[in-house]
Specification:
Layout (H helix, E strand, L loop, with lengths): L1 H20 L8 H11 L2 H10 L3 H8 L4 H21 L4 E5 L2 E7 H4 L9 H16 L3 E8 L6 H21 L7 E5 L12 H7 L1 E8 L1 H11 L1
Parallel strand pairs: 3-4
Antiparallel strand pairs: 1-2, 2-5, 3-5
Helix pairs in contact: 1-2, 2-5, 3-4, 5-10
Length: 226
């Protein structure tokens, strides 16, 4: 029965995901796409699917998705915050995914090579991000550190954790509640580009900041969606 449930959920999210990326659904808004993904799988199974595909950020978003009308309402709020971050935070790549937001900084923007101290320009960028996070308090934030494959697995894992923690420490000092923030380091385990090239390694050295609805936003969305 458990295997059947997982297969059913996986099939559901596969259909939803195909619709999201397929040409036949190009007219869908980000909010509608978020609702489709949320409807495709339950929380725990969604997180499993996302992480098993090698994408912790996507797994966190899918894992907490509500889907349906409530998910669409959350997606609408995320649309607005994503646009705000895009307009106000230089150096950030902003992506709306399902019912959440992924904000990506190349590590070269934030840190010198093999360092965990934030650059001056990085602090300016993160200060602007902190303002958006303060303006939208009904969210939780996951900070994910990544490296390329240069060096040992153990070193890269430790570096990715320390960099994520450095970003968290700065945001906390900039009046973002620490209770909203969590960190994880993935080392070299989730590349997004080819590690055999200099450009690919530069893309893989990054920090991702995932923004999702907290319990209060979810509760309000459920009530509004009834």
């Amino acid at each position: 029965m458990k295997n059947r449930t997982i297969k059913t959920a996986f099939f559901g999210i596969a259909i939803a995901s195909a619709c999201v990326i397929g040409q036949g659904c190009n007219s869908f808004t980000k909010t509608q796409k978020g609702a489709a993904i949320g409807a495709g799988a339950g929380g725990a199974v969604g997180a499993f699917i996302g992480k098993s595909a090698g994408n912790t950020a996507l797994g966190a978003i899918i894992g907490g998705a509500l889907g349906g009308t409530a998910g669409a309402l959350i997606g609408h709020k995320m649309d607005k915050q994503a646009a705000e971050i895009q307009q106000t935070v230089p150096g950030a790549t902003v992506s709306r995914e399902g019912e959440g937001i992924v904000v990506k900084f190349d590590s070269g923007i934030l840190f010198d090579v093999n360092q965990t101290a934030l650059k001056g320009a990085a602090q300016t960028n993160l200060d602007k991000l902190a303002t958006s996070l303060q303006n939208n308090p009904q969210t939780n934030i996951m900070i994910i550190g990544h490296t390329d494959n240069t060096g040992s697995d153990a070193y890269n894992q430790d570096l990715s954790v320390r960099r994520a923690e450095a970003v968290k420490a700065f945001l906390t000092s900039d009046r973002v509640s620490g209770s909203r923030l969590s960190t994880t380091g993935k080392g070299e385990s989730e590349p997004i580009a080819d590690n055999t090239t200099a450009d690919g390694r530069a893309q893989n050295r990054r920090v991702e900041i995932v923004i999702v609805a907290n319990d209060q936003m979810k509760s309000e969305a459920k009530q509004q969606g009834q």
